[in-house]
Amino acid sequence: MTDTSAPTQRNLAKLRRVAKKRSTYVWIALLLLFWLFGIPGYFAVTEDDPVTLRLLTGTENRDLDPIIKRFADQEGVKIETSYQGSVDTMLDLQQGAEGFDAVWPASSIWMALGDSGGIVSQTQSISRTPVVFGVKRSVAERLGWVGRDVTVEDILQAAESGQLRYMMTSATQSNSGAMAYLGYLYAFAGQPDILTSEMLHDPVVVERTKRILGAVNRSAGASGFLRDLFLSEYDAYDGMVNNESAIINANRQLTTEGRELLYVIYPVDGLAIADWPLGFIDRGDKAKADLFTKFQQYLLSDEVKQELLKAGRRAGMAINPTDADPTIFNPDWGIDLTRTIVPIKPPSAEVILEALTLYQTVLRKPSFTVFCLDFSGSMEGKGEDQLKEGMGVLLDPDQSSRYLLQTGANDITIVLPFNDALMARWKIEGNDPAGLRELLTWVSETETDGGTNIYDPVIAALDEMESVNLETYSPAVILLTDGQSNAGSWRDLEARMAEASPVKVPVYAILFGDASRDQLDQIADATSGKVFDGRSNLINVLRQVKGYN
Length: 549
Description:
The protein is built from 21 helices and 18 strands. The protein is globular and about 65 Å long. Residues 1-15, 30-36 and 38-47 have low confidence and may be disordered. It is an alpha/beta fold. The longest helix has 33 residues, at 5-37. It has 3 domains: 52-125 and 277-312, Periplasmic binding protein-like II (D-Maltodextrin-Binding Protein, domain 2), CATH 3.40.190.10; 129-274 and 329-352, Periplasmic binding protein-like II (D-Maltodextrin-Binding Protein, domain 2); 366-546, Rossmann fold, CATH 3.40.50.410. Strands 5, 6, 7, 8, 9, 10 and 12 form a 7-stranded mixed β-sheet that branches. A 6-stranded mixed β-sheet has the order 15-14-13-16-17-18, with helices on both faces. Strands 2-1-3-11-4 form a 5-stranded mixed β-sheet. α2 (65-75) links the parallel β1 (52-58) and β2.
């Protein structure tokens, strides 16, 4: 008789080990499924996890961070806020605004231009601010503007006669500039019920609008920067076009400094209003829809309304709030909450886009731009690729038109590639597409090599600008570098700036790679320019900087 007990036991033990392994594999598979798809009580988002609302809004709303954060803390939710300019918001909306649940631009015109797919709903205006002219009180008195209606024609005559030096942001990059520009068009078109395409090409409208834009003494790409620039260059300018709230905040600072305050002028025939609409992008998530409704109601509440009024914004449904603090909306500053405001009616999206294109290519003050581009050896690879791609956005007519950064018919564009010395000089006058693309080809074919000298290119750029009357241009030097300057001298540049023409040429420096922030700040501060950080997205920063002139 054969004894089978031992093999049988061995077989049973083997089966147990196999079953144990299979059981382990099953548990691992189940855990993976739980992690991927979520099971209540295990790996799913529970009711204790906060709902997140992803908000896209304008840069001026950074001041409202504490108000937004308070709501999130009170409700136990998350508000992820992204701040950017009006043109970028328009472009994001055109592409479906993926990654965002709500949008809050400075004006409804950017929604009209961007929301071609009709993805935004439940839109309500949170606050309003007229786009006004802030002029030093003594200048307003000398011009006879205190206590009477002032027209856009009055502003034109004062600027052209040399009695008024003023700042204004770019109409294609900043909402305050766009609003003021549309107001000019309405005024010169005779205050029609609605602006049409035909009116944009009326010779009288074109001629007068070109004249008033040509009288702008300094441009910028953002309203907040313009306000700060005016305060830092206070003695060189008489006023600025900006949001009423920006004038209020400027006067607060001027009061503490004991300087002459600005007087607010409301152009009677061309007044536009930034209406700050907040809208929802519905992606079928009920929790987010409910959260948006709560957030919108919170921003429209009496509590927040009072905070917005303290910030100089006309909050609530009334354009003339009756409960505003007169020390903020100060009548002595020309601020009039009893004035009947009849703002211009925004035209169709097609007419707005046509008007902005006309501004960029024909009507604005011509730009004189010198690009100082670092082609040192350290730029090889990612830096070189992004630099060339970014210049492609600016110089290729098809790409630049998408961002409303087209080169104008009277613009001057110079490119100075450099390493430890100047490598070349390329120049084009006007906006001939073939010439612009040839300039881009030269940039694209340049190779990286050598060390870094950021000073000599800026000196050469200032030399280039001596050949023209800079009063007739909006000049700027755009300096891009990724390294610390190991050649050239700040003292040489400082001496050259002291010899330059009376028109101060701003240097907008773009920080990339391991560039020295201290060196770039020194140059930007001395020229009333600005340093931009291009390390995260050099292409976007290049086009942002170009919008400043």
